[in-house]
Amino acid sequence: MILEGFMGSGKTTVGIRLSYKMAMTVSDTDKLIEHEQRRTISEIFAEDGEEAFRQMETECLKKLADQKSAQIISLGGGVPVREENRAVLKTLGMVVYLRAKPETIYARIKNDTSRPLLQCTDPLARIHALMAERGAAYEEAADVIIDTDELSMEQVVSKIVLEAKKRGIVS
Ligand code: S3P
Question: What are the tens digits of pLDDT across the range 104-134?
């Protein structure tokens, strides 16, 4: 089961809660990259640039696909943008898109300094622009779309469990 969506859409939190609820392991591409690189995402962006980070994401995703051990995967927000990555996602199982409006995202992450793409003078405008660019890719990759704006994390988790049951992924 794969969780995709914009920064601040709740992928990491939902992934951890799902892993408890469904007794499945959870992996997070950002955390795997930071661990392997022994640097934060901000440091990687500052030292090597975004393109190098994107390559690390693709390699991380391919490794996860080869291992087939992770049962829940939370993706960094930019992973589905590359077509190459979307092709890998198709082989990994049910892809859930945690969709949220730009204003919801902004309210959640406005005080966060760990996301280099949003360290700019007008983060809300940046969120709007990036979402406009990425929306189609997220939708194309998704098997299930959940609009999270009005939902608690628990409600999101329950909806995903329901979808997984419908598909026979869990009993
Ligand atoms: C990014 C999302 C971040 C992280 C990096 C770039 C993006 O992950 O991978 O800062 O391009 O949307 P989260 O979605 O977990 O914040």
Answer: 999 999 999 999 999 999 999 999 999 999 9
Give the domain extent around 36. 2-161
Using the atom order of ligand 1, give the atom closest to the CA of residue 33.
9
In the reported structure, the alpha carbon of residue 152 is separated from the centroid of ligand 1 by a whole-number distance in angstroms of: 21
Among candidate residues 90, 118, 91, the one with its CA nearest the CA of residue 106: 118
41 lines ligand 1 (CB under 6 A): yes
Q: Whole-angstrom Cα distance, residue 165 to residue 70?
A: 19
Looking up residue 124, the CATH number of its domain turns out to be 3.40.50.300
> Which amino acid residue places its CA nearest to atom 10 of ligand 1?
115
**Per-residue model confidence (pLDDT) at position 171:** 78
Count of domains forming the chain? 1
Q: Which two tokens stand for residue 164?
A: 């997984």
